Amino acid sequence: MLSLLYQEGPSTEGIFRRSGSAKTCKELKEKLDSGAEVDLACESIFVTASLFKDFLRNIPGSILSSQLCDKWVSVMDQGNNEEKIKSIQRLIEQLPRANVVLLRYIFGVLHGIERRSEENQMNAFNLAICIAPSLLWPPVSSTPDIESEFTKKISSLVQFLTENCCRIFGEEITSLFGEI
Questions:
Q1: By percentage, how much of the chain surpasses pLDDT 70?
Q2: Based on CB atoms within 10 Å of each CB, which residue in 51, 61, 83, 117 is the most buried?
Q3: Where are the domains of the chain?
């Protein structure tokens, strides 16, 4: 999925914003969940993006860990960019290794898409609005006002992560997929 998003996402206007066919997504999710072979290259890239966001939303406790939710939310309230980056790196060190590996690939994809935002209309802000709710959610439900404020803060964090991913994860993030 990520490889396809890395390949096609940068040249696809509205990637992650537009949804794939709900019926196709449901059918493919059932096939994937049953372990059946699925050739996503034959599907719309919007279906792949929708399936990927669904996958992220189904990670127990979220990829960024709901247990660290308050710490993630407070990162953007810290001083300058260097302090924010150091705080983010400390939080990333607290995540399970599998989460960190997946995050690096996710932000490698987002970085590639953001670099061609003139073409795809998906700058770091737009990407964050679309993907942030799939990366972290509060451990308990709350009022709509609190959830709205939370979403704004997480979107701001994801925008910052996308814009600074090379400094946070290392320059090699731009070559994780090799020469596809």
A1: 99
A2: 51
A3: 1-174
**The CATH classification of domain 1-174, taken from the options 2.10.109.10, 3.40.50.800, 1.20.1050.10, 1.10.555.10:** 1.10.555.10
Q: What is the pLDDT of residue 145?
A: 82
Q: Are 137 and 66 within 8 A, CB to CB? A: yes
Token representation of residue 36: 């059946």
* Torsion angle (degrees, nearest 10) of CA 13, 124, 97, 102: 0
Residue pair 153/133 in contact (Cβ under 8 Å)? The answer is: no
Over the stretch 43-82, which tens digit does the pLDDT of each residue have? Answer: 999 999 999 999 999 999 999 999 999 999 999 998 899 9
Q: What pLDDT score was predicted for residue 31?
A: 94
Residue count of the chain, please give it.
Answer: 180
| Residue in 42, 40, 44, 45 with CA at minimum distance from that of residue 10 | 45
The pTM is what?
0.92
CA distances from 30 to 23, 39, 91, 120, 157 (A): 11, 14, 34, 30, 32
Q: Taking residues 30-42, report their average pLDDT.
A: 93
